[in-house]
Amino acid sequence: xxxxxxxxxxxxxxxxxxxxxxxxxxxxxxxxxxxxxxxxxxxxxxxxxxxxxxxxxxxxxxxxxxxxxxxxxxxxxxxxxxxxxxxxxxxxxxxxxxxxxxxxxxxxxxxxxxxxxxxxxxxxxxxxxxxxxx
Length: 134
Ligand code: CMP
Known about the structure:
By secondary structure, this protein is an alpha+beta fold. The protein has 7 helices and 4 strands. It has a single domain (about 1-130), classed as 2-Layer Sandwich (Alpha-Beta Plaits). The radius of gyration is 14 Å and the shape is globular. Adenosine-3',5'-cyclic-monophosphate binds near residues 58, 62, 92, 113 and 116.
């Protein structure tokens, strides 16, 4: 099934110079990066992106982190893209993520975990229009 999903290299990933490595891993997995942009989020957009986590104890830490520097947002398309991007990313907590996954190889904490990838078709539908029109 051909799908589109939303992916974001977080400020720690950008600061560590990992954008090209992540692009290469996505493309080697046979997925297509339809559109990509480096940008700074504002608070409204960050809170909207993570609105499902509003009220959780880590919400403010998460929002502060994604506001702490530039991010790279991507629209990624391909067969089973949502599941494959989650596989490439690895477990949310880098300490539990397998070697060979982006978070397992490069993440330093559950907040500084390098990459965000939408976790379901519903999330992708909510997140993509915040960054990509059409
Ligand atoms: P991400 O894929 O961007 O989606 C939500 C983010 O919330 C997640 O990556 C983590 O960075 C963060 N997160 C999820 N669970 C926790 C938690 N228990 N403690 C701190 N941060 C969390």
